[in-house]
Amino acid sequence: MNEFPAKRRVRSTASALVALTLPVVLLVAACGSSVEAVRVGETTLDREGVAALVAEATGGPVDAEAVNAEAAANVVDRYVRYEALSDLLAEYDVAVDAEARTAARDRLIAAGVDAGDPSLPRFIGWQSALDMVEEAGDGIRAAYEANAHLLGHDLCTSHILVSYEDDARAVMHLLESGEDFAALAGSVSQDPGSGQAGGSLSCVGLGRFVPTFERAALGALAAGETLVGPVPSEFGFHVIRIDEVRPVEPVAFDDLGVRLSAALLQIAGLTRTVEVDARFGDWDPVVGRVAPPAGPLAPALARLGS
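Given the sequence above, the corresponding C-alpha cells read:
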C-alpha cells in the first residue's frame, strides 16, 4: 500500500474537537446583522458572525465587510463540518439536554479550554453532539441506517498528490483539457509509490484513507462524478479519480465501534444543504469543503512544467 493511506490510528473525533482552536459565535440574532452568510441545514450565520469567527481565530479586529477570504474560508469550513452533524442529529430527534451540555463543558475545560473563552458555548454544543453519537442511542442508529448506503462502497481510486492547492487546480485544468492521468501522475505526483503506477491506489475499504480523501471520493460517487479536487489532507492536495464503482454492503451499525463518529460526520457532510456567501469561500458539495478563492493558474502550471 502507498504511503498516502493513513498508517496510524486517527484520533477520536471528540478528541479532535477538544484540540480545535475555532472561535465561537452566538446565535445569529445576537450578531447585529441580518445578512445571511452561511446556512447549514436550518442553522444560519450572518456576516458579523463570520467576522467574529475570523477575529477570534486571528486575534485581531475584523471588519465584516472586509474579511480576509482565505481566513474566512478556513473557519467557515470548520463551522460547517460540526454544524452539519448537529443538524443531522436534530433531524433524527437526538436532543442534547442540560446534563449532556454540562458533561461536555467539564470535558472541554479538563482538556484545557479556558472557562472564559467566548468560544466555549459553541464548543459545548459541538462536543455534546459528538458525545451523543458515541452513546449510540436509537436516534443515532436511525440516522446511520437511513443513510448507510452512502458509505456502501469500496474506494477504487487513483490520485495525484501535489504540495499546493493552486497546483491541484492546475492538475484539474490539465486533465479537463485532455492530459493523460497516468502520465501526469508519473511526472508530477509527490506520492512516488502510486505515481509509478499511474496514480493507482487500487480498491480498498473505507477506513484506509484519511477522512478528507474518503469524504471527497464518497461525494464523487454520490454525484456520479469521476474526477474531484483539490482535496486537502496532511499530505498535501489531491486530485482523485474514481476508477471503478464498487458497491458493497455497508458496515452494520453494531459493528462500527470506534468508526461511528467518523461515519456520522461523513453522512452529515453528504446529506446537509449548505450555502456560503462567495466572499467567505466556495462550498464544494462533492469535496465537502469550503475552499478559499482560487489563485491564478499560470504560476501553478509553470511549477508543473506545463
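The longest strand covers residues 236-247. Try to locate this feature in the C-alpha cell string yourself.
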